[in-house]
Amino acid sequence: MRARNALDEARQLVGKALEPRVLEPSPPAVVDGVWFADDPTADGDVDWRQWVDLHPEQRAWARERWLGAFGRFGQAPHAYNDTRLAFHRLAVYVISPARQRANGKIGLRWTLGGIGTPFFGADEQVRILGTDLVRQRGQQAWVEPITTLDEAAAFVLDGPPDGSWANSFDVPHIGPTGEKLAVSVDGARFLADWYGFAWSVLEELRADLECDEPSRVQLWPEHFDAAFDCSIANRRATFGASPGDARSDAPYLYVVSPGISELSDQLWNSTSFEGAILPLSDLVDALDQRATALEFFRIRRTALARS
């Protein structure tokens, strides 16, 4: 299949006179001391909302990439959790290890149609696209359907699945590596949309610059959450989006920070950890899902600043 460069795709669309920023990682591969991928909050010449208003014929292109035109999602489809668990196992035992072997880093990102690594090594990337795996190097890209962990690892790692890095983490058990992974087209599409939505919201929140020393938004393979953290009033807080876990079959947004249990405010409604959650059910019917998500995060960020 055709190798992708998300930033170049945007440049070709908007024209050479402008310098856009996108949510996806793009080559060249990053090195130590440089951000993990393109920084969507860095100075650029394109306000995607304004650009889409001026170019409505490109709304579908922008919506697919969560840039200025935003879609909606409903409840998670049937058997969603089977797909989520299958993708989590792929992230832990196949996709993240491909990056770790090159530079020791485990973080992943949202990518068009799924999740994947930033570029590493010789401009390499491994990503999920729908129900397929893509391995890209330079100007070439190869694709295979997701079948088993063994076949995925042979395609990506040229060897067996590798979970040695995760021995100390609470991750899904590797399970029978020759067993067919239960992935569905609907589940894969929903999961990709959830992470695209999360990235667009978290990057906008991060760009507010109302907290200090924000980290980058990353998808951590051990938890499978998209999140970043920053300092607020001498405490560290994490803002994130979970696709679901052992406590919740459905996705949710969350805020966590040390010592939240000492605050009596009803904003901190989580019963399974110190923090706050906004469940998918509260987002589905919202008139503006992104505005609702941003309001959830910003109200709690303000409360932490005043605590």
General description of the model:
- The protein is α+β, with helices and mostly antiparallel strands and 307 residues long.
- The protein has helices at residues 6-14, 48-54, 59-64, 80-103, 149-156, 185-207, 280-284, 289-306, and strands at residues 109-111, 114-116, 124-129, 132-137, 140-145, 218-220, 225-232, 235-242, 252-256, 275-279.
- The chain starts with 5 loop residues before the first helix and ends with a helix.
- The chain has eight helices and ten strands.
- The strands form three sheets. The chain has a five-stranded antiparallel β-sheet. The protein has a three-stranded antiparallel β-sheet with strand order 3-4-5, covered by helices on one side. A two-stranded antiparallel sheet has the order 1-2.
- Helix content is 33%, strand content 17%.
- The protein is globular.
- It folds into three domains: 6-59, no CATH class; 80-185, no CATH class; 187-306.
- A hairpin with a 4-residue loop joins strand 6 and strand 7 (225-232).
Tell me the count of domains.
Answer: 3
- Weakly predicted, low-confidence segments: none
Overall geometric form: globular
The N- and C-terminal alpha carbons lie at a distance of 52 Å
> Major sheet, described briefly?
5 strands, antiparallel
Gyration radius from CA atoms, angstroms: 19 Å
Strand numbers in spatial order across the main sheet: 6-7-8-9-10
Provide the succession of SSEs: HHHHEEEEEHHEEEEEHH
- Percentage beta strand: 15-25%
In percent, how helical is the residue content? Answer: 25-40%
Number of strands: 10
